[in-house]
Amino acid sequence: MSDVVISSIQELLSLNISFRWMLHSAVYFMTNKNNTVLYIGVTSNLEKRVFQHKTKAYKGFTEKYNCDKLVYFEVFTDINQAISREKQLKKGNRNRKNDLVNSMNPDWKDLSEGWLFNFT
To answer: Average pLDDT, stretch 68-89?
Structure first.
């Protein structure tokens, strides 16, 4: 299966894909309310992982620096591709990371705003 990368909300919506895309692998950026800290992560369930960040379910970097705002993501069909992309992004400098966020989300809005988190 060829890899699919979706790197903008507009692209995702234009494909008319249901929220099942959140069950695919993703690389994502979380930040704090002032956009001064960036966390890059990889997950196989973006919705669940963002919920964990927002509720501070685990102690760590995002809990310590209040990174609870999703500002960027890329979706992959293969977790190995997502892991490789995460490593590539983590090697980049802050300006490159900012450019990626600005290309998808110039206002640095919380892309998970309006998501209904339900894991019962």
So the answer is: 95
